[in-house]
Amino acid sequence: MSLIELMVVMAIIGGLVGLLLPAVQQSREVSRRAHCLNNLRQIGLGLHLYHEVYTSFPIGCLERRMTPSSPKRQIAWSAWLLPYVEQQALYKSLDLSTPFDSAKNAAGAAEVVSVYVCPSVDRITQATSGGRGPCDYGGIYGPRFFGDLNSPPRGVMLYGSAVSLPMITDGASNTLAIAEESIFLPSGEWINGMNIFDVSYAINAAPAIDNDIHSQHPGGANGLFVDGSARFLSDETSTVVLSAICTRSDADIVDAW
To answer: How far out from the chain centre does Cα 95 lie?
Structure first.
């Protein structure tokens, strides 16, 4: 084979690689998005197992701190859920009578819980503060659109109180309980109760400094509904629909979406 022929072959191979690489990357992202949805389904199963035992879903955040120096515990729903997502040993290693960042919880809180981690997130550039394990999913506190201050809060995951199925009169299949929040924030830790939030922006539209629905998936984010179903929520979802699915008992009518 002459040098010219070799160069032609190499150019053809290079062109084929250039065509195939985006398809391979897209295929990998489809797989990661499906993995993320499966994480949410497992969390949904855990929520219902918890509900069977306690007749309510976990408190979104127990003893929220209003100042960094507060002695309150600030324990997250995702910590209470550990025994119901096959993390009994980790749960037993914690002392949840003490704050989430107490020395007694340091070793356990540093553990990475795979069901709380979206595989599309780059953990090299997006570590959490304090060396604690990440959580890429946040509880829905309620909507804040159209001048609505969400007071009293109308979501499923609340500060200091628990919500039960009979309280969700809008329908379990129409009410969002958990959604992705995978932009780095210091509060993005499975033990830290600040991983619940108002939904104030369209999907993936909030500033990175705000707790809201964010994901690393192109075109949208995954969400978990109260009935245990997990769905991909498009960036094009209207804020009217988004507001409706973030409330538990507003008699919202959710059109096809």
So the answer is: 24
Q: Are residues 217 and 120 in contact, defined by beta-carbon separation less than 8 angstroms?
A: yes
Whether 14 is in a domain gets the answer no
Residue with tokens 């909030």: 206
Kindly state whether residue 256 falls inside one of the protein's structural domains. Answer: no
Which pTM does this prediction carry? 0.86
Cα–Cα dist 199/39, whole Å:
21
224 inside domain: yes
Reduced to 3 states (helix: H, G, I; strand: E, B; else coil), residue 66 is coil
**Is 251 domain-assigned?**
no
The two beta strands, 61-62 and 75-76, are: antiparallel
Helices assigned H by DSSP within 98-194: 106-109
In this structure, which amino acid lies at residue 246?
Answer: C
Instruction: Provide the residue range defining the domain that includes 167.
Output: 28-245
pLDDT, tens digit, 9 for 90 and up, residues 76-116: 999 999 999 999 999 999 999 999 999 999 999 999 999 99
* Number of domains within the chain: 1
